[in-house]
Amino acid sequence: VQLQASGGGLAQAGGSLRLSCAASGSTIGINLMGWYRQAPGKRRELVADITRGRKTNYAESVKGRFTISRDNAKNTVFLQMSSLKPEDTAVYYCKADYRGIRDFWGPGTLVTVSS
Questions:
Q1: Residue 88's closest CA among 51, 52, 35, 50?
Q2: What is the mean pLDDT of residues 53-65?
């Protein structure tokens, strides 16, 4: 499984960005897909994840501001980020859980939110 993320960049506080992550390869074994982020000097943390059945889970810090969704036919997961805050600045990573056996990670995309 290979993951390719896109959509990162620079936004002002209060603005929006949309991240996309497309999976390729043996995608039929993927159930849970999610977004994680890692800010400088901090540990990587879960932002949101979504099952193939579209059950979602969010970090408290992004609830009401971020929305995760997926297109199973295109093996793509999206993260719509609104009301961005400077503390959302981080490298965002897409993750796919393969059959509960192993995780695959995308290369990361930088999101910078200016105040």
A1: 35
A2: 97
Q: What are the CA-CA distances from residue 20 to residues 37, 68, 70, 74 (Å)?
A: 14, 10, 9, 11
Q: Which phi and psi (to 5°) does residue 73 adopt?
A: -65, -30
pLDDT in tens, 15-57: 999 999 999 998 888 999 999 999 999 999 999 999 999 999 9
On whether the CB atoms of residues 43 and 37 are closer than 8 A, the answer is no
Amino acid at the residue 57: N
| Residue owning tokens 């979504």 | 50
Residues 68, 12: contact at Cβ < 8 Å? no
| Backbone dihedral angles phi then psi of residue 55, each to the nearest 5 degrees | -80, 130
Q: Is the pLDDT of residue 100 over 90?
A: no
